[in-house]
Amino acid sequence: MPISLHTPYKKDNNMLNTYSRRNFLKLSAGIVASGTALSSSPKAHAMGQKISKSTEPAKLVKGYCPFCQVRCTYHAEVRNGKIERIIGDKDNRWTGGSMCPKGLSIVELMESPHRLVHPMKKEADGSWTKISYDEAVKLTAQKMRACLDTHKDAAGDRIAMTMPLWDSRESELAALITLNMAGSVHAMPPGETCVSTAANMLTMMAGTGNPTTTVNEILNSKLLILWGANLCELYPAYSRWLVMAKEKNVQIVYIDPRSTSTSNFVDFQVHPIPGTDGVLAMGIINYLVQNELLDEEKARELVPELDVLKEDVQSYSLEQVEAITGVPQDQVIKLAEIIGKSDRTIVWFGGSICRYTNGIPTVRTVILMQGITGNMIGEGRGILTMHSGKPGGEHEFVEAMSGKNTRAKMNFRRLRLAMSKKKLDILFLNSSYRRYPDGKGVREAIGNVPFVVHCGFYMTPEAEISHLFVPMTFSPEAAGSAYGNEKETVWRDQIVEAPGECVTAMKFYSDVGREVFGDKYPYFNTPEEMYNKFCEVVPSWKGLTLERVRKSPDGLVWPIYEENGEERLGCVFTEGKLLTPDGFMKVNDKVFGRIKWTAPKDSPYAPKANQDFPLIFTQGKVVHHWQHTVTNYSPSLAQFSQGRTVSVHPDTAKKYELADGDKVYLETPVGKTEAKLIVSEAILPGTVFTPSHLCPSAPFEQNKGIAVNDIVPNNWDRISCQHNGVGCRLTKI
Length: 733
What we know:
By secondary structure, the chain is an alpha/beta fold. A 7-stranded mixed beta sheet has the order 5-4-15-14-13-6-7, covered by helices on one side. A 6-stranded mixed beta sheet has the order 20-22-21-26-19-23. The protein has a 5-stranded parallel beta sheet with strand order 10-9-8-11-12, sandwiched between helices. Helix 5 (169-181) packs across helix 15 and helix 5 runs parallel beside helix 19 (505-517). The longest helix has 19 residues, at 133-151. The N and C termini lie far apart (61 Å).
């Protein structure tokens, strides 16, 4: 019988060793274990929570966290128009009421003294002048009209946007409608820097860019493979699913070059050299074939080109796999045997495996591995991803509201080239340019754009290089919907009033659209109006009515085609076949060719590598910060930050005569930054890890530092920009 989604969560403290438990609880599990743990403690104020002495009854208002796509829901206690504390919603089936430090910092971020609450225009001398919101709208509309008048039908290629707009899905839709009416489709998706490779390969190989199942299906599996998915640090609220999986005797395997908090929850971990995951996957497939652990007749049901795949992987013997990945042969055999014997396997992709220039063949190979072992379709089988889950219907709605636009879309690499050549007139810079490699070069390219608008909260580097700053509302300050990792849609009501002239991005882009296009613009007064219209226009949303979503503690899972239809969780292949045009997975693709592996570009293991940079550079997120965004402005989160650190193995430190705590330069072929050395056995020899989140404009020294992507080369694969695997070196200061 399948496991119920509402299986109760029972915490097992024995799963963490003493050292790891102490550090993990410091940031995560103490909050993850109970949604009220932090907010009801004497230290609640440390995370922006406030304990009131007032006897006036508090009002509870529903909200959700705006950061990662777990999309934790909560109840805000409001008294005298202020949020006093946030309490995770214990009825949320995905989180059990847990929240991580990032989400709990939202009150502190809203009330930061560094927050900007009025529009500002940059003058010719670089100084800023405060202007009214109406002036900001009119100025933006004037620039758009000038671009349209000057460039006519070509104007669309001279207007672009970096997504997302953080406050709600309605804000994204309003912005896309305004862009589309101006003839532009150039909205840069955030996935280009995280899950884009996995999403695109899943679309090509399986017919869906989303996860092929939902997280509850882990409990119906026999084997869960966390392939680069550092769940406990990136999605702390989901660590409860690892505990529940262990209670159901699900075997958990973790593939990651580092030992992390997630390592404490798993049965078996292998540590491949960064960027060699594709070789490991090909070696596993070859082992399954050579040792008759593969039902070839069944495998051909999804992969008719099985013989081509066998040919592509046949050179990856155990010896070759060990030589390239560094994983001992006995561990490769153990992993392959585990995979070959499991008939219910779920692979959870971390964004990390997409962040190498060879990410495309890596992801394709792992998807093929799932396909040939019969683990793509059905209960307890499939692929989960991180930073994905976006429901469909967006393009249907935008086209219905503002007409079709067949212009070819840019990715950011092409947009950067257009900016460098001064072929872009307007950039709506909504998200951090620091997420892209070669941040200095990106900043210089943006400097060629005559009019840059930043919708934000603080004087970040994005605001600094803009010509117009428009202050945004934080999520508790406006109503709206958002989507989560399970393709669920959640709703929040407005909890408190926004300060100053802060507005939603929905209002700003709608007002600009109305100013430019008049009554032709499909204006919506409220997020509720837009949401209801969306459900009316898009068939797959008919059953996700605002009334139903509003009542749900954790939202509703898309799609629901009937007004009172039931959600469908689990495998998306409801008819027992893939959603590709022919129902099969391709091995020899017209665009990407056959399966092959090369070392990441600029890797010290690549052919003709620069031997001056012998260490492998990696970066990633940490539990107390979210990407390159506003969490740098939280004083409570700052206390957990150590500034720019680099972690290396003791053997690496010894080889280069370095010691724990040394100040060093972390240097790549394109730049360097100062850092503090952490010597740890948690990382492979020859590898360097540094956190991604530091910001040069952060108000706290612990978070202040150059953006790490300033020293990352401008490497792209065919789909997305890449951040890891390049060569680097460390020198003592």
